[in-house]
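Title: Prediction job returns without error message
Component: structure pipeline
Severity: low
Priority: P3
Assignee: unassigned

Description:
Job completed but the reporter wants confirmation the result is attached to the right record. Sequence as submitted:
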Amino acid sequence: MGQQSGNVNQTRQANGGAQPAVARQSPAQLNALQKYLKTPKGYVLILLLILMAIDTALYAPDRQGILNVAVAMATAVVIDLIVALLRGQSKRLLSDGGLVTGAIIGLVLAPSVSVPITMITTAVAVASKHVLKSGRKPWFNPAAIGLLFSSVVLHTGQSWWGDLADLHPLEIVFVIVIGYLITSRINKFPQVLSFLGAYFAILAVTGLLHWGHAAFTPGDALRWPLINSALFMAFFMLTDPPTSPGKYKDQVWFGVITGAVGTLIYLLFGGLNYWLIALLVANAWKAWASRQVVSSTLKEPVQRATG
């Protein structure tokens, strides 16, 4: 026993008193994971995966959707990696933004959608953020671009199964709790509340006045499962930091535009794409507003000089 202790001490002395390499790596890996979970995108990704786990655990048919989520996430990461290498940004080999985009696409597409279609949908989504942008910020929500393209061009189905619409209506509490945690983490409450306020207000007014399409009534939009998709949009897509405003005033306008446009499109035309179109309209407004701010900022020095 004493000889073994001596050998261990001699080994530690030879290594400068340090622990073996295996013991040193484990805390480092743990710290890296903890740091990633503290980032907004890492936090959102984990909560999205928790939402997926809840759905697949309680509703067996949606377990096929896990494949779509995995394929979409892998496709997004690979494309972002290729773009990063072409730009000489080899330090970022894992795209956290790509992971979030892929997870949302997989949670919206119907589980029956084939793997090639899922890959094409994700490729269009990721490509859009690298092409349609100002500086490093994309103009449009990548997931919304990909899903709308997939629906209109490829005629794919959308089930929005990530909003737990297949479960008992009371299970919506999971969406609300997880959505609350995300909204709190990225400070988007004005945006979410203004979106939901516009949504409920328009439905209430049109319902009292009996306006809207006969097949797409305000009452239907307030029932399960359509209310689930509205909450999923509010908490998980509307709040995307790169494509939504940071200032509270702009957040309110952004939420109102999305809620109003989406609700009116639903009441007039129905379908499944009304939230995607509404979000892209709000994205276009944000891009225009940001451009106006930049233009006015550039004009100020000229006006001072000429004044």
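Comment from assignee: result matches the submitted record. The first helix runs from residue 2 to 14.
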